[in-house]
Amino acid sequence: MSDLTTTVSQYLDIWNEADADKRAAAVAELFTADAPYIDPLVAVEGHAGFAAVVAGAREQFQGLSFELHGTVDAHHNQARFQWGLVTAPGTEPVAIGFDVLVTDEAGKIKAVYGFLDKLPAA
Amino acid sequence: MSDLTTTVSQYLDIWNEADADKRAAAVAELFTADAPYIDPLVAVEGHAGFAAVVAGAREQFQGLSFELHGTVDAHHNQARFQWGLVTAPGTEPVAIGFDVLVTDEAGKIKAVYGFLDKLPAA
């Protein structure tokens, strides 16, 4: 449980990391080489693909940050959780998403299956 | 979308199929050979493993049936939905679970990641 909660925290940290080199290093550390990341808007595989998705989201939502919304529900090698896109920590999220993370035996993320629960207002 | 909704329906039908041979045939038809099925209680891979899980659940919850609880949210090759374990169609579920199904390019289920939202009363 605690391992997966840590993994979720490290995963969200990547979305909040401003430095592209640090993001790339963290992605390489945290994900298996060919891990799919699939949400309603994008479907990519591998480190460069996921890093590009994060870079795009950061560009689109400048000044906002991603935080855990609620708690992490985890068992075996999988975790589900909601994340919120917020203007400041603890504020009402402008968008809420939901991810299932699946890790391999070494604890690396081998897949992210994402869904959206609340879309940003247009 | 509609393909995945159909897949979810076929998936739930397996849980409700009383005939073990028909279940095995449906599992072979619907799942890839090595698909993992992982929920809080069990983690198996492949047709025989999943069929055994369904047989065990049917034995434990005799007379109850599984139905879609709410709607299917699907995109790309993945779907999320809640299921309810009910004593009769449309009644308050005694247990509610949540699954993410992932399909391959041919539409076969290649993974099920399950969680529990409401446990049966002891």
Q: How many domains is the backbone of chain A divided into?
A: 1
Note the total helix count of chain A. Answer: 3
Could you say what the CATH topology of chain A is called?
A: Nuclear Transport Factor 2, Chain: A
Anisotropy-based shape of chain A: globular
How can the largest sheet of chain A be summarized? Answer: 6 strands, mixed
Radius of gyration of chain A: 13 Å
| Uncertain residue ranges of chain A | none
- Main structural class of chain A: alpha+beta
**Alpha-carbon distance between the termini of chain A?**
37 Å
Percent strand of chain A equals 35-45%
Number of strands of chain A: 6
Oligomer: homodimer
- Strand line-up of the largest beta sheet of chain A: 2-1-6-5-4-3
Largest chain interface and its two residue counts? A-B, 16 and 16 residues
CATH class of chain A: Alpha Beta
Mean pLDDT across residues of chain A = 96
Q: Secondary-structure element sequence of chain A?
A: HHEEHEEEE
Assign the CATH architecture of chain A.
Roll
- The residue fraction in helices of chain A comes out at 25-40%
Task: Write out key terms for the chains shown.
homodimer, 122 residues, alpha+beta, Nuclear Transport Factor 2, Chain: A, six-stranded mixed beta sheet, 3 helices, 6 strands, 37% strand
